[in-house]
Every structure is written in C-alpha cells, then in structure tokens.
C-alpha cells in the first residue's frame, strides 16, 4: 500500500515557477514508477510527467516538455515536479500517482495509487 500527499501548489504569474512535491508512505516506494497528472476544470485528467523507479528514464507530455522536470529522491520517499515558464493553460489540480507498468505510463486509469491533488493557478 502506498499513500501519496502532494504539496507546493499555489498562485503564480505567467512565466513564474513552482515546485511540487509528493511525499509517499509505504516501504515499496522505491520500486514504483511515479507520475504527475493534472486536471483542469471541465477537462479530463491528463498525463504530465513520469519517472521510473530507478530514475533513469523520464517521460513528459509534449505540452510541458522543456519547461517541467520530474525527479525523485528514494531516500526521502519523495517525487518532485519543477515547473518553469508557467502559462495560464497550466492551471489545474495536479495529482501525484504511483505504480503502473511502463507500457501504460501515460494512461490515467493504469495507475494504482493517487494523491488528493494540489491546486496550481497561473495568472495572466
């Protein structure tokens, strides 16, 4: 069992930065792929980024590639999402997720564990 708690969301102006954190509990954290998804009002939840349990491979949605960076610290049971050059269209609730197969890493329904989400609002 893995429990996930996100933090770091907030209000930022266009072009600003935020770093989201996701603290995980559970002894098997280091063996899980971890990911970030987001859901804007009236839209479906979408893939943002993911990282393998060894942190050797990362995956990004095209809309955030080059602006967002996912990383993890297995010693701290924490995964991060550094978000730079934020745009109003990045406004959403951001969710941390854990445990999926790499073949389905961008598929929302394929992830086993979810956090409760943290709000990110980018003002224009």
Structure, explained:
Strands 2, 4, 5, 6, 9, 10 and 11 form a 7-stranded mixed β-sheet that branches. The protein has a 4-stranded antiparallel β-sheet with strand order 1-3-8-7, with no helix packed on it. It has strands at residues 3-7, 10-13, 18-25, 34-39, 46-51, 58-60, 68-73, 78-83, 92-98, 113-114, 118-123. The N and C termini lie far apart (40 Å). It is 0% helix and 48% strand. β7 and β8 form a beta hairpin. It has 124 residues and is an all-beta fold. It is built from no helices and 11 strands. The model has no long low-confidence stretch (mean pLDDT 94).
Question: How many helical stretches?
Answer: 0
How much of the sequence lies in strands comes to: over 45%
Distance between the termini: 40 Å
Shape: globular
Helix % is: under 10%
State the total count of DSSP E strands.
Answer: 11
Order of helix and strand elements from N to C terminus: EEEEEEEEEEE
Decide which structural class fits the backbone.
Answer: mainly beta
Main beta sheet: strand number and arrangement? 7 strands, mixed
Radius of gyration from the alpha-carbon trace, in angstroms: 13 Å
Indicate the low-confidence ranges by residue numbers.
Answer: none
What attributes does this structure have?
mainly beta; 124 residues; 0% helix
Brief summary:
The protein is mainly beta and 124 residues long. It is 0% helix and 48% strand. Strands 2, 4, 5, 6, 9, 10 and 11 form a seven-stranded mixed β-sheet that branches. Strands 1-3-8-7 form a four-stranded antiparallel β-sheet, with no helix packed on it.
């Amino acid at each position: 069992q893995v429990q996930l708690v996100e933090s770091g969301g907030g209000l930022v102006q266009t072009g600003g930065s935020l770093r989201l954190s996701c603290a995980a509990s559970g002894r098997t954290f280091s063996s899980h792929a971890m990911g970030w998804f987001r859901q804007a009002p009236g839209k479906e939840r979408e893939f943002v980024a993911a990282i393998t349990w060894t942190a050797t491979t990362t995956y990004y949605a095209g809309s955030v590639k080059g602006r967002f960076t996912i990383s993890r610290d297995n010693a701290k049971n924490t995964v991060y999402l550094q978000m730079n050059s934020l745009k109003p269209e990045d406004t959403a609730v951001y969710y941390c997720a854990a445990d999926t197969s790499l073949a389905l890493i961008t598929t929302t329904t394929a992830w086993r564990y979810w956090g409760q989400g943290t709000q990110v609002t980018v003002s224009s």
